[in-house]
Amino acid sequence: MKVIDSHTEGEPTRVVVSGGPALGSGSLKERLAQLESHHDHFRQSVILEPRGSDVLVGALLCPPVDQRCVTGVIFFNNTGYLGMCGHGALGVAKTLQYLGMAPESEVLIETPVGVIKITFDYAEGATIENVPSYLFKADVCLNVKGLGEISGDVAWGGNWFFLTEHAPVALVLANCQQLTEAAIQIKKALMEAGVTGIDGAVIDHIEFFSGAESESADSRNFVLCPGGAYDRSPCGTGTSAKMACLAAKNQLQPGETWVQESIIGSRFYGSYQWGEKGQVIPSITGRAYISAESSLVFESDDPFRHGIFSV
Ligand code: PYC
């Protein structure tokens, strides 16, 4: 199995270029379902230790249904599948460029939640135009163990987010453990209170915000991903969800730049245009770097060829 590893502003992506399972010719949503029900060991063996890690996001390239797209992409992580992944799409963009699969300065890729436009900007990396994003529930009040009463917004940015400024400690790397524990308690409180996204969708990303460390950024975030790892990048779908909230509250105008700083100090540059029905079309610019080009080997007598499972 051939893979290309990259990181986008610190967050790693592993693109499976060849050797993945055959998933038929259905829609990307159907192929994701096929992957999940019949080939989940593929995801586990690529992402889990000893070949991967909890931080890694995988991206399986497959033929697109929409012929305008250069490829289809299914994103996955240590616990399951992601409809969309912003840093991952920027990692895919860099990989396509590296492989010579992006001959134009603008290409489209197809994900299970929609088509993503990538624009290559050689100074700044690449820009993705994300799926339509929106604020779903504003000022949701929660009683959270260890935090007490807090409030935040529920928004869609390609994944479901709970966004809050009520972090228990400063958003610095040294506090990652406390931030992770607090985010897990928020996730539990959301479940207990029955707060969900549309159609009962689980809110599986928790995002804390504070002022930025750098004067030239607008905000700093800490994002807990569904598998329990925090995002080293400012999170593309999380920044999209944030801009959707700011737009709905008239705090960010269309075309205005929003500089989102991550917990490690890396940055995404975001902006949006209004889409249909009060939704926004976010654009996220960030840099990705290739870190490895390799073959994954699965020996038949390797007891951990499908990964090491934590209970
Ligand atoms: O950049 O959208 C993102 C993302 C989601 C999970 C990890 N990164």
Q: Ends: how far apart?
A: 27 Å
Mean pLDDT across the residues is: 96
| Quaternary structure classification | single chain
Biggest beta sheet summary: 17 strands, mixed
Low-confidence stretches: none
The number of strands is 17
What would your notes on this structure say?
This protein is 20% helix and 36% strand. α1 crosses α2 (40-47). The protein has 311 residues and is α+β, with helices and mostly antiparallel strands. It contains 5 helices and 17 strands. Bound molecules: pyrrole-2-carboxylate (PYC). Residues 11, 57, 85-87, 159, 225, 231, 233, 235-237 line the site of pyrrole-2-carboxylate (PYC).
Q: Layout of helices and strands, plus pairs?
A:
Layout: E1 2-8, E2 11-18, H1 28-38, H2 40-47, E3 57-62, E4 71-76, E5 81-82, H3 86-98, E6 106-111, E7 114-121, E8 125-129, E9 134-144, E10 148-156, E11 160-164, H4 176-192, E12 205-210, E13 219-224, H5 236-248, E14 258-261, E15 267-274, E16 280-286, E17 288-295
Parallel strand pairs: 2-3, 4-6, 11-12, 13-14
Antiparallel strand pairs: 1-2, 1-17, 3-4, 4-5, 6-7, 7-8, 8-16, 9-10, 10-11, 12-13, 14-15, 15-16
Helix pairs in contact: 1-2
The structure holds pyrrole-2-carboxylate.
Please give a quick description of this structure.
The chain has 5 helices and 17 strands. The protein has 311 residues and is of the alpha+beta class.
